[in-house]
Amino acid sequence: MRSRPAARCAAPATGGGRELYSWKMKFVWGIHPNALAYSMTTLGAGMMNSIFNFYYVKVFLNRYKISEGAFNQAQAVFMVWNAINDPLFGYIQDNSKLRCCARRQFLILYGAPLYGLAFLLPWFPWKHYEEGDWLCGFHLVVSLCAFDGLLTFVLLAQCALFAESSSRHESRLQLIKYNQVATLIGATSILFCGLVSDNMDNFAYFQAFAVLIAALATACMCCTGKYSTSQYEQREIHVESANLENSEGAFSLASVVSLTKQIMTEKNFLFFVTMNFFQVFHLAFYNNFMIIFADNLIPADVLSSSVRSIMYGAGFICPQCLVLLSHASLKKFGYYRVILFSFYYEGVAAAVMFFLGQEHYYLLAFYLTTNMVVVQASFSLFNLPLADIVDADLVKHKRRSPLSSMVFGTNALFTKPAQSLAPMLVVKVLNQFGYRNLNNVVGHPDARTFLDLHDAMFNLICLVPLCIAVMQVLTWTPFSIQNSHMTAVH
Q1: Residues 154, 159, 160, 166: what is their CA dihedral angle, to the nearest 10 degrees?
Q2: Number of other residues whose CB lies within 10 A of the CB of residue 304
Q3: Which of 54, 176, 302, 479 is 20 to 30 A from 19 in CA distance terms?
Q4: Cα 31 to the chain's mean position, in Å?
Q5: Helix axes 267-297, 305-325, angle to 10 degrees
Q6: Using CA atoms, how far apart are residues 275 and 273, in angstroms rounded to an integer?
Q7: CA 190, 430, 350 angle in degrees (round to 5)?
Q8: Closest by Cα among 14, 247, 256, 233 to 103
């Protein structure tokens, strides 16, 4: 029996091909090859995730006319699946007996095409839905669970690559820098999608653009699978050896519980997870409802459709610019202080907007955009504290290789439910003030008919960020890894 296929399975790219690629990138174009390869998954995922999160709620509520009950049921199912799949995939990726599955690069390479297909699920109805059609609710369940499952499968491997690429703070900042450029480019998909489809009014153009994005994103992520590297290139050999020593207990429930308990007993991990839960809620709040809030609170004669497209695109593009501009501050002050400052800004901005009132339309548009930018920008830095937590766990428990995927997956176990809670709670509040009736009105309803709904929307966009900012300041302040940018890692 020939062994060549197994050898190819162990390495995403041939040694000679990878070395030639690295030489060309580094010496011909002055580009760091591993950071570029790593960031290609961010580019692909960014193009799909921004469109998915921004439009799926509006598609199912406004176009497919899903009922509130079916919407909440779908979100409840998704919340359970969303929480379970991260630690499950994390444990499998860190402890798999298979050489290919233990390799981060191959997980990305194999998962990318399926991830692209899952992205397309919400945009193509399975039939012409009547209002309250049960099949529409099932469509939403399948779309959410399939997309998040493949997102988790691919991005957990990428997160593990981030922690395992290097233990040096400078190297991780370089990955962050390349990552933000990739996210910046990927976020333009929202801008171009809005311009091409006239903010989804031309749904056929929207569907065609989604297919194009899925193809481009898949190609980008495959580049990571072929060309990225880590300092644990031989980790699959150690994993296979460990599994041979204890093949029967490798995937036992006791092993999962034991490793998870070790991770969760770290105070810094608990502080971070609590803070991150509110951040995920806040991000889902803006991603899912910014377009709905802006369309209802800012009159059409104040902001044209093209200006709104630019505004929505800025909410996804500018965060990456902000992170790139704050690169020097991150090196000087560290991520802990930068993230803490963002929480203070969000709270103050929300309080000021609340007291000024909703009649200041241009200021309201500026507030919505800048707050979304700051929330997304600070969230982009969260891999840094998680990577430090992975390093601390590796040293404390004297592990042979880091449990990167398990740490990221356990974090997601407690934070991902916020992605479902945000739309469930907001839709419930909006429907109590007549949003369902607004959705059923043909044409452009008189704004005076829905004053209570507009007041509720304005209160949500001010009070929700204010309360979240207070909770995040309280939970982030005790985090003790505050000076990793100054400490040499040995």
Answers
A1: 140
A2: 10
A3: 176
A4: 26
A5: 160
A6: 5
A7: 65
A8: 233
